[in-house]
Amino acid sequence: MPGMKALLRALVLVFVATSCFAQDAVRLDQIVQTYVQNKTFMGSVLVARGADVILSKGYGAANLEWDIPNTPSTRFRLGSITKQFTAASILLLEERGKLQLEDPIKTYLADAPAAWDRITIFNLLTHSSGIPNFTSLSDYKTLQLADTPLVKTIAMVRDKPLDFFPGEKMSYSNSGSVNAGYIHMSVPHAAGALYSTTEDLLRWEQGLFGGKVVSSASLQKMMTPFKNDYAFGLVVQTIDGRKVVQHGGGIEGFNTFLAYYPDDRLTVVVLANINGPAPNAIAAKLATVARGGTVQTSAERKEIALPKPTLEKYVGTYEVAPGVNMWVRLQEDHLTTQLAGQPELPIFPESETKFFLKAVDAQIEFVNDVSGEVTRAVLRQNGRDLNAARTSTTIAGAPQHHEITVPVSTLSKYIGTYRLRPNVDLSITLDSNQLMAQMTGQPKFPIFAESATLFFYKVVDATLEFQTDASGTATGVRLRQGPVDDMLPRR
């Protein structure tokens, strides 16, 4: 009988665990579906605790034209998740005595400029080299990495001055990983060129954190942050009291996120084949639920009505970072929020001080002092809180545009297609005397003239300035939005 009782207890435990997994899987799927339904996510998702897979599923299409669905075995471009593979490869070389992290990179790049003399392999892996980020250079738009030798990619930055003294600070730069990949010649385009699946990334996490890829000493090095929580191709943080080792990726047509929670042996993989912030937000929510927490999606939040005097007290300018403002406006009977360089979006109250966005999964809570004056706003998104001090009760520093009328004969000279980068074009059309602009894969928006050649969007803080020849016909257009300042030649 004791043996039978032990067997029954084991069966009960298995049943309970299986039931919990099934319940978790349903809730995890519901969370992902909210992003699928609002058309901000297509891709594949995997959540596993140890070797036990809780959710592994594809969403949307891998190929729309051929109606091929995404599945757990669909391959996605990883973007910067590639960097941890590069880091592990370098650490393996160190274990084998082929190099040391303190080695100057000139040991392996003999023709490196003098400015790189103090840069070490460690600096490359921790984004502390000071080498300018090649993907931020204006001529990167014309560079097709798949057809570009490593030597040519490195040449883009070799003669440019360093952004800072090596080791002085951390500034995210794809150039460092490319140089690290050059040191380890078997890692092509080591900043972000790998493909993988959710299933294979689970195997990678199990191997890396299970001691099957690098030694425990090397893994400890790989997981030790240098500055700004950045280690070797990994971001290491404590969120909600738990350590998380993670990295995201973004590359043309793909956004990705991979996270591992060592204390829970929890792996979360979100791979998307459309660009946007959804993978980060999805991963944060999935991890919370898988660890026993609760989350609320935008679709599940309940909007309430607030009187106009209550809404009016939140209007103003809030500083989210030095030189970066968020504006809160009252538009008739509702509030809107706008970050510099981004669209103006409505926010909806769920309490007197808490508001949420429907366009993205984010919330804003306004904080009062003892006198009832609003002093700051807390932005919540992707499991993070960002405090924004209120700097003005008015809309300070917001762009001001004054619309004028331009003859149709002038507008017609701007109609055409302008190249931003390979496979991404800006199309300018004229619809009933209204000039319209449409970027590849995005909706068509009206643009409005403030001079004969300068136009602005109302849906987003961006401008288009047409460059013309002697006849007034456009030869190109300059796009300005936040830090972006790109010249798009007419095709």
Defining key terms:
alpha+beta; 3 domains; 491 residues; Lipocalin; eight-stranded antiparallel β-sheet; eight-stranded antiparallel barrel
What's a quick, concise take on this entry?
This protein is α+β, with helices and mostly antiparallel strands. It has helices spanning about 1-35, 80-95, 120-125, 150-160, 175-185, 200-210, 215-220, 280-290, 310, 410, and strands at about 45-50, 50-60, 60-65, 70, 75, 195, 235-240, 240-250, 255-260, 265-270, 315-320, 325-330, 335-340, 345-350, 355, 360-370, 375-380, 385-390, 415-420, 425-430, 435-440, 445-450, 455, 465-470, 475-480, 485-490. The N and C termini lie far apart (about 85 Å).
What's the topology here?
Layout: H1 2-37, E1 43-49, E2 52-59, E3 61-63, E4 68-69, E5 76-77, H2 82-95, H3 121-125, H4 150-158, H5 174-183, E6 195-196, H6 198-209, H7 216-222, E7 235-239, E8 242-251, E9 254-261, E10 266-272, H8 278-290, H9 308-312, E11 316-321, E12 324-331, E13 334-339, E14 345-349, E15 354-357, E16 362-368, E17 374-381, E18 384-392, H10 408-411, E19 416-421, E20 424-431, E21 434-439, E22 444-449, E23 454-457, E24 463-468, E25 474-481, E26 484-489
Antiparallel strand pairs: 1-2, 1-10, 3-4, 5-6, 7-8, 8-9, 9-10, 11-12, 11-18, 12-13, 13-14, 14-15, 15-16, 16-17, 17-18, 19-20, 20-21, 21-22, 22-23, 23-24, 24-25, 25-26
Helix pairs in contact: 1-8, 2-5, 4-5
